[in-house]
Amino acid sequence: MEYPEAYLAGIALFNDGKFWHAHEEWEEAWRATADPETRLFYKGIIQTAAALVHWQRGNPRGLRLNWAKARSKLTQLPASCMGLPLNALIEHMDRFVEAEGRDRDPPRLAPVSRGESPTRPYG
């Protein structure tokens, strides 16, 4: 499956720990789509990246609040969306936020085609 360039660029930035820049790329992708489910997906991953920006800045409250917003969107979606296994992302982020990011790496994203298993999905 082909994915928008801004989406893939956001994933690469996210995986490099450049959460703010990933957020910006995904906003571009969000603006370019009219599909309600895809827009909800983008909002969820944008807010996930924002949560991790707060974590990088040492703001656990911002981490929790932004993750709560992201989580409420991502849980409305299918288990996999745009090639990402969202259930695994949600589980990883839940544990990450619970620990306030201490002793745990943030998730890494790996989009996959339908029917494939992710090779390095989260963490």
Description:
With 123 residues, this protein is mainly alpha-helical. The protein has 5 helices and 2 strands; from the N terminus they run H-H-H-H-E-E-H. It has helices at 5-15, 19-31, 36-56, 60-74, 86-98, and strands at residues 80-81, 84-85. It has a two-stranded antiparallel sheet with strand order 1-2. Strand 1 and strand 2 (84-85) form a beta hairpin. The longest helix is centred in the middle third of the chain and has 21 residues, at 36-56. The radius of gyration is 13 Å and the shape is globular. Residues 113-123 have low confidence and may be disordered.
Uncertain stretches: 113-123
Strand order of the largest sheet: 1-2
Range of strand content = under 5%
How far apart the termini lie comes to 24 Å
- Please state the CA-atom Rg, rounded to the nearest Å: 13 Å
Describe what is shown at a glance:
With about 120 residues, the chain is mostly helical. Helix content is about 60%, strand content about 5%. It has 5 helices and 2 strands, in the order H-H-H-H-E-E-H.
